[in-house]
Every structure is written in C-alpha cells, then in structure tokens.
TrEMBL record:
InterPro entries: GHMP_kinase_C_dom, GHMP_kinase_C_sf, Mev_gal_kin, Ribosomal_Su5_D2-typ_SF, Ribsml_uS5_D2-typ_fold_subgr. One of its GO terms (cellular component) is cytosol. GO terms for molecular function: ATP binding; mevalonate kinase activity. Keywords: Cytoplasm, Kinase, Magnesium, Transferase. It comes from Cnephaeus nilssonii. It comes from the Eukaryota. This is GHMP kinase C-terminal domain-containing protein.
Amino acid sequence: MLSEGLLVSAPGKVILHGEHAVVHGKVALAVALNLRTFLRLQPHSNGKVGLNLPNIGIKRAWDVARLQLLDTSFLERGDITEQVEKLKEVAGLPRAVPTASAWLCWPSCTCTCPSAGSRGRPAQPGRCRVVGAAHRGRLGLQCRLLVCLAAALLTLCEEIPNPLKGGEAASRWTAEDLEVINEWAFQGERVIHGSPSGVDNAVSTWGGALRYQQGKISPLKRPPALKILLTNTKVPRSTKALVLGVRNRLLKFPEIVAPLLTSMDAISLECERVLGEMAAAPAPEHYLVLEQQSAPGAEGPLWCPLLRSLHHSLSLAHSHHSVPSCCQHGVCAPVVNGSCSSELIDMNQHHLNALGVGHASLDQLCQVTMAHGLHSKLTGAGGGGCGITLLRPGLQGPEVEATKQALTDCGFDSWETSIGAPGISIHAAASLDAPIRQALDGL
C-alpha cells in the first residue's frame, strides 16, 4: 500500500503529420512531447479523499466513510451518458460540471470503494489520498491526466505492481501493465469524446512515436530525439466543426480534395521512412532532405554544422531530468536533434490550408519562424490552436530565444521541448527538478 506518496508523469502529444487525412483512412504520425503532467498521490489521515487539479479548475473532497457506502453498480449498465449523469449525482457534483471534469473526479473517489469492481484491494479505510498535478504545457492535458490517474490509482489499488525500486530515480511498468493503464485511460477518453481514436491515450501511455491508420496503432521503434517549439496561438476552435468542414469540402470537390488527402498520406509515409533511417544511422543526406539551404550565418551546406554539433547533441539527448534512463518503451534513438523534412513540413501546411483548416494566426506563426530560418505547421485540428516549429541542429540558444520572443510579441505562448519522449513513468520525489516539486508542494 501507499505510505510515502506516489509520483507519476505522462507526456503530451502532437500530430507530426496526417491531421484530418487520418479521418479519411490515411496514415497519421503522432509523437510524445517532453512537456509532461506530474501527478502526486499523497496519504493523509483526515478521513477525506481530495482531488486538486488547478489547471482545469477542479478541487473536490469526499468523506471516505461515505464513499465506502456507495453503490457503484450503475457503472455496469446503461450507456456512458447515463453513467456520467449518475456519477455526478453520486459524487455530489453539480449537473453543470463538464463531463470531462466529472470523469476525472470519479476514479479519485471510487478508489476507496470496495464495490468499485477492482481485482485488487481498495484503498485502506480511514486513509485518504490527496491527488494533485502540475503541468508543462496544456496540449492534450485531459488525456495526460487520465493516463496519470489510471497509472497511479491502479498502482494504489494493487491492480498493477509499483515498478520503482529503491535507489531508482524513475521507472516504467511492464508492457502488460501498460496495456491495462492504456485501456483504463481509453475508457475515460470515450466518456469525454464519444468515439476517440485511441491515439492520445496510447501516446501518453507508451511514449515515443506511433503510426495510426484506420484504428490500427503501431509504434515506431526508437524515433530520433528531435527538438521543436510548440506554440499556442490562443485562438479557440471547434475540432468537430473543422473535421466536418473538411468532409464537406471533400464531398463538394472530390477530384480536388481526394488527391490532397492521398498526397498527405504520402507525406506521412515519407516522414516515417526518414525517421526510421535517422534512428538507424543518421547521415548527412537525411539533413540535406530536411534543409536544402545553408543555415543562417553558416558557411557551406547545412549538414556541415549538423555534423559538428552531433557529439554535443548526443550528450544532451540523455540529460533531461524527465526522461528516465530506464524506460522500456518509447525511448528515443540518441541522434542529433534534427527533424522530419522542412520541405515535408511546408508542403503539409500548404495542404492543410487547401483543406480549409488554416487560420491567420497560423499563417503569422509560419511567417515569423520563417523569418528566423525555421519551418512550422499547425498540429491537431487547425483553425488556430497550436503549431510546431522544427529546431534545426546546431541552432544556438540566443537564436531560439529570439524566435520565442518574436512569437510572444504576436501574443502567442511558446515552449521549447523535444519529441519522442517516454510514456507514463513513476518517479522518486528527489529526482524531480525544483519547479515541479514546488508546484506540487503548493497544491
């Protein structure tokens, strides 16, 4: 049982290539971002179980004695909508509470219920758990929380063993246990989104990079460690409306839009090929495909500074505190921080604009980063939202900061991070850096 607390983290996710095309049966490549959500379960003895997720406005507490009297058999009958409404009633939540918030609350209170249907043991009577989370970036936040809650509570109830051994900074669960975590997180995704693809929870669970097509998810083995900027334009949009808009455009102009989708499929496949070759044996020609012009201020073709920076990049690939060295899945190949082709990035962005999912804010993002010699595209549904920018190898810190400042001047938020991060992990408290510890301690 939990005695000193439990700390887990899960990565964010972006679509590298294949947005919208994937809805029409084409390939999409999704990658884990090293912008992580950290969640802590902490034992207390005040007779309450609490949930504190300040980033999404959730702070609730329940009496353990009352929870142990709850009848949770309603979870075994009826559709999801009925279950969620009953869930709000049982958990004492207002009907106005969003479905996502209600579902995030539910595991926290049922972890103390003997009737919750667990194969393992419920939390010890009279002992309660305060759940808190700290985040880096908000992209895919709800899914990250679902994966963290699934892993932490399954471990708490001894459905899966705690893989962290004494003296280890971090660890991960076995493939069999990760499947259990992924399935529980997927059920939460179903409540929130209705008919999710399963990509979001799979990426946060397994990490690395995944290929998705027509319901089939397969990992890319040892994707290269690549650095990007993730930028939030802060422009709200409706994913449902954007997906419908593409479908309507396809119906209206089938001979124009269908070839666009086929071309986007080819872009994803070419990116997958380049990533595979880079992971196996990075070579100058890969980067010539990526960037066919000289780097700003550099002498000669770009691959010269790339090669000069290779050793430095290799050493950095394992230095980030939130990438456990013992990860069993989703480990990035230690290669120079390169990228899938800037040409592919540019072509895909133009294709997405042609599908009608671009936005003036995303055009501005592309123009600003292009002025700094970098290449960007939207990620996700488009219509605003977020974009990704490839950071070429050898790019100096001042250049990155200048780009981030230019994006900030546009009113955007920007984070420097890497892709191919490990999936759900468990940590020793001492292994976390000071800002994360402070954020969790402040909850």
